[in-house]
Every structure is written in C-alpha cells, then in structure tokens.
C-alpha cells in the first residue's frame, strides 16, 4: 500500500480575505447652449469682433462664453476662438471640467472640433482663452451652420473633494481544501479497491487501487478499465517494465496531485534516478502535470553523471525544455570530455545517435 500523503499539494492555494474600496469625485454638472444667429452678418464684422453669451449658473458659480467667430486678429481670422470665464468674485478657487463643442444639424456634439479641459479658476485667474475651437473653413464645411445659425454647447462640471469609501465585505473563514489528504487515506486504507497491480520483474510488489480514481486522472487507465480493450474487467494487472518504487510514486501523485515527500528526503542521486523512472511512467499513462514536475526536478539535478541519461529520456519523451537544459549545461560548462566518459553517455550514443550528433554540433559551434 502507498503511504498517506500528509503534505499539501504544491497547487493548493492560501485562503483569501476580501475587501474593496471606491474612489469617487463629487461633482455638479450643468449645460448651456449658446446660439449665434445671423452668422453671415457676424462673419462680416471682421477680425477681433466678439459676441458674448448670457451668464449661466452651474454649482453656485456664474459663467460666460465670449466667442471670436473671425479670430482675434487678421493673422488668425480663419480660426474660431472662445474665452470661458468665471463671473463671480470668489474667495477660494474652483476646479472645473469643461467641454465646449459645436452642435451639428441633428443636435449632436462635434467629435473633432471644440475644446475640452480641466482647470482651476479663481479671483486672480478667472478666464481661459482665447482658445481655438477649430478652423472656420472646417466648421462651415462640416454643416454646423444651420439656417444661418451656429450653436455652441458648453458643459461644465464643478469638481469637489474626492472621496474614498471602504466597503466591508462580510466573510466566513473557509478552511483550505484537504481533498488530497482524504484521497491519500483512501489509497492507504485500501477501502473499496477493485484492482491490484503486480509491478516489477519476478514476483514484484502488489499495489491496490480504485479504477474510477485512476480513470479520472489518466486517459490511459480510463481506456484500459472502461474502454473496449481486452481484459478491462480484470481485477489483477501485471506490469513488468516499471520499477515498483516508481509505480508507488505514480499512485501517490494520482491520489494527491503532488510528488511523494520521500523524494525530498533521499540523496540527490537517488532522487534523480527516481524522477527519471517516474517521468517515463508519467508519459506512459498520460499524466502531463507529473511529467512536468519530473522535468523540473531533473533540470535542477543535472550534473556530469546524470546529464547523458537525462538527455536520452528528454529526447525519447519529447521534453523540449529538459533537453535544452541538458544542452546548455554541456555547452556552457565545456565538460563534454568528462560527460563522454560516463556510462550514461554510452547509453545515449547507442539509443539516441542523432542527439549525440546535435550535441557535438552545438559544442563545436
């Protein structure tokens, strides 16, 4: 039987506490529409001539527009200017957001002609402008002049002090998931097991498990136990080509979604050997996460004695990142001679000659 997994899986998440806050800017908004009638007559008045709107109140403050339909001088006679002003004699400054735009024949504001700004107004700075709203030829070509009238819309928002509201979210302390421990006890106790694996050459070692758990975790086991494969209903399955220790670790992962803690307790050489065997088994049974965990462990265990056998496994089981790590180790360390003297390199040369050729090419480049 496999030992009970007491350590939480590496994918477990800490319980989170929740809170939220909202930043808002209190504001008062008002809109004023200023219609300039007899537009042709106004245009004939010449550069520098201006027309003034009525005074309008927004947020307790009085405002006005002064428009220069013929520019402010002969040099700017082709540009429509506007002055936006505060008419009150205020003690404190006031911050406002202003949008001044032309209205088209449907009463829709222009998207490209106009002025939009945020500014503080005070007793010493009561005006903005003259600011250009657009070129007069563009204004007339865009059909903003209707029945010899031009309408300007001014939207003013008085911006007051910002406010942050912290919202208290009611919550209940939720304990972390212990599903992996419950499944681990199920594997350890052996209650309800319906299949036994005889693993290893000769008599090997017996491991009992649950078909439904294996099928849920592995597509290969699912096809074996619940597919049309011959012997799917067998209660005993013999596996000769996997080490019992590796199969025990594979079952541990299936039930706990983590590597067995014993892999951190054994010496480095034994841990690398176990990870190599476990990677092969993970690939065989379609356990992609376990395969990646083994890749990571093997990457961190690369040395002169292990790199050749690890490279062979990486190539045979399509572990591209692990293969690249092996290449980088040999090339960067310039220790190919030492690697070639290991038994693992002879295995690599016999089983993966193309990889050896690729490795030598990288070293010599």
TrEMBL record:
Location of the BTB domain: 193-263
Gene3D superfamilies: 1.25.40.420, Apoptosis, Tumor Necrosis Factor Receptor Associated Protein 2, Chain A, Potassium Channel Kv1.1, Chain A
GO annotation, biological process: cellular response to salt stress; protein ubiquitination
SMART domains (UniProt xref): BTB (SM00225)
Domain of life the protein comes from: Eukaryota
Location of the MATH domain: 29-156
Pathway: Protein modification; protein ubiquitination
Alphabetical list of PROSITE patterns matching this protein: BTB, MATH
Family affiliation: Belongs to the Tdpoz family.
Role played: May act as a substrate-specific adapter of an E3 ubiquitin-protein ligase complex (CUL3-RBX1-BTB) which mediates the ubiquitination and subsequent proteasomal degradation of target proteins.
Name of the protein in question: BTB/POZ and MATH domain-containing protein 2
Organism: Ananas comosus
